[in-house]
Amino acid sequence: MPAERVLPAVRLRAARLGWTCLLAALLSGCASGSGAEPIYQGSDAPGPSASTEPAAGISPSAAPADGTLAGTDPAGTDSAGTDPAGTDPADGAPGAPASGPAALPAVTYAGDEVTGLGVPWSIAVLPDGTLLFSDRETGDIMRAAADGTSLVGTLPDAAEASGEGGLLGLAVAGDFSDNPAVYAYYTSSGDNRVVRMSYEDNALGEPEEILTGIPKGNIHNGGRIAFGPDSRLYIGTGDAGNGSNAQDPESLGGKVLRLAPDGTVPTDNPTPGSPVYSRGHRNVQGLAWDSEERLWATEFGPEVDDELNLVVPGSNYGWPDVTGAPGRQGFVDAQVAWPSTATSSPSGMAIIDDTAYIGGLRGQRLWQVPLVGGQAGRPVSHFDGEFGRLRDVAEGSDGLLVVTNEGDGGARILRATLD
Ligand SMILES: [Ca+2]
């Protein structure tokens, strides 16, 4: 199944190379075009893109040539990679809009929403604007609203987790107003799991198991959960420190999973009866959808090749066999591969107006990535080092909400406007 899904994409990209090379050859000769990895030809779309990215922290020397923008804009060749679709309107890319590139919104820090936090990991925004956020170490789920901040519930066994585990992702469904419930992903004594709790009068009910048996480890526990535009619950997991989990179709580790809100497996999942939606992931901590309802996911790489992936159901994203965008048959290349985890470690992500906003942990910066027609453009960074590690990003009532992750009371949720 993966091969069937992947090959058409490769063909599409190969078709674009004609355009790419025509343009790129004028600039730099379409260097690797005839090699085994035609896919990210356009990445070197060289000069122009680099010019948009002086502050991004992608090492300038590495940026153009090493696949930083892996496959980001095979069609692109365009400046900033923002215009892949625009350059190849005839390529038949599904859903590719004909609109051209637009300047990326300016991102401006606009104050703190909540301060003095412990180890916040995830935020969920309720329809009335109330914020819920999790604390990884205490297992607390807190509420922040105009009338103050309060505790709405605790998952005590999450607090016993060690390493990177604990209370991780939170999510609320689109029908929250009719069926108020909060979903949480946490590390228990024996596994990682997803539970649902009713939410009434600013308090959570007893947790009900939605999915159990996700492998746990000291590292790579994944943990992001989000409801898609299809009202399904998507779950980003990690390999729990064992790379083979990611390729094992029977393991829930190293996957993007998809479930109905009640925990049952949707009949239209790629593999009947399996929650596995895509595999070959190392540690997924960001999930969000663009305007065409395409799912994007971030994951941590091993020192190199932090990734932003366009998730195609049933596909294989390579870990642990490959990382980044090597163009290996049977694996889907990352659309963005940051050459060093020192500049990224991409965690939570929000997509607003087809621009992704990604919190960088080790990189201590907010990455902004244009997404056009299912292709990522060149990342631009903001807040480099200003607020420490950035753990999660969500869309707020007026721009972004960003969770910082300094620990020891130094963490906060800040606001940023997009203009
Ligand atoms: Ca990968």
List keywords for this structure.
five-stranded antiparallel β-sheet; mainly beta; globular; 419 residues; Neuraminidase; binds calcium ion
Give an overview in words:
Helix content is 11%, strand content 35%. It has 419 residues and is mainly beta. It folds into two domains: 2-87, no CATH class; 107-364 and 372-418, 6 Propeller (Neuraminidase). The strands form six sheets. Strands 6, 7, 8, 9 and 10 form a five-stranded antiparallel beta sheet that branches. Strands 19, 20, 21, 22 and 23 form a five-stranded antiparallel beta sheet that branches. A hairpin with a 4-residue loop joins β3 (131-135) and β4 (140-145). Residues 1-67 and 71-100 have low confidence and may be disordered. The structure holds calcium ion (CA). Residues 307, 317-319, 323, 334 line the site of calcium ion. Calcium ion is lined by residues 307, 317-319, 323, 334.
